[in-house]
Hints:
Elements: E1 6-9, E2 13-17, E3 23-28, E4 31-34, E5 39-42, H1 46-64, E6 70-73, E7 78-82, E8 85-86, E9 89-96, H2 100-105, E10 112-122, E11 131-132, H3 134-139, H4 145-167, E12 171-185, E13 188-194, E14 202-206, H5 216-219, H6 225-236
Antiparallel strand pairs: 1-2, 2-3, 3-7, 4-5, 6-7, 8-12, 9-10, 9-12, 10-11, 12-13, 12-14
Helix pairs in contact: 1-6
Amino acid sequence: MARRRQIYEGKAKVLFEGPEPGTIVQYFKDDATAFNALKKGTIAGKGVLNNRITEYVFTKLAALGIPTHFIRRLNMREQLVRQVEIVPLEVVVRNIATGSLTKRLGIEEGLQLPRSIVEYYYKDDALGDPLVSEEHITAFGWATPMELEDMTGMALRINDFLTGMFAAIGIKLVDFKLEFGRLMDQDMVRLVLADEFSPDNCRLWDAETGEKMDKDRFRQDLGNVEGAYQEVARRLGIMPESDGPGDHKGSESIQ
């Protein structure tokens, strides 16, 4: 499709004006960042894989009854989505202890949590996306109590479904980050799942070996980052068709 006016460029994606009012074209880049963009690099083909994985996951979630902004994939790197007002929160669901949780609470990495934990982070790169409480969220008007309840409920439903989906292909869903947006639907505003779901914003471990299959390989200099993303797509049964010559030329992930 013809390239339209650029609206926004983030760490992992570029947003363009969509072909119809109320739509956005979301382009997935190969750029990789970590530690609030203090570490930068490129993961060859990441944008292609993340586009396909996001399409797959969002389509499955929509069939489950989870409303999303996703409309359809346009090509190898672009998808058409509904334009939404992003809620300035990152909703993180944790199943296994790792990352900032282990550092904050002195918990051993790999510990199976007694139950899934939902955390909220305020979206502000300059502040390092700080952890916030429900009191902060409602007091400062980032989301209403009803919106917060809806986001938490959807996050836990998504976790239940995706934990099973990944377990079926030999992968542990360790934790993940979600973003939600407000969508004008006739005369009502409703919350929908937005952004993406990919190895950029979740942690995936091989169920047998514990090998990391996500962007932690980039953060921790473990190597074979491209191979890990490809293996996730392969197990999901969605390895993309050949990009063609020259194609292998976001959002910050969970903490």
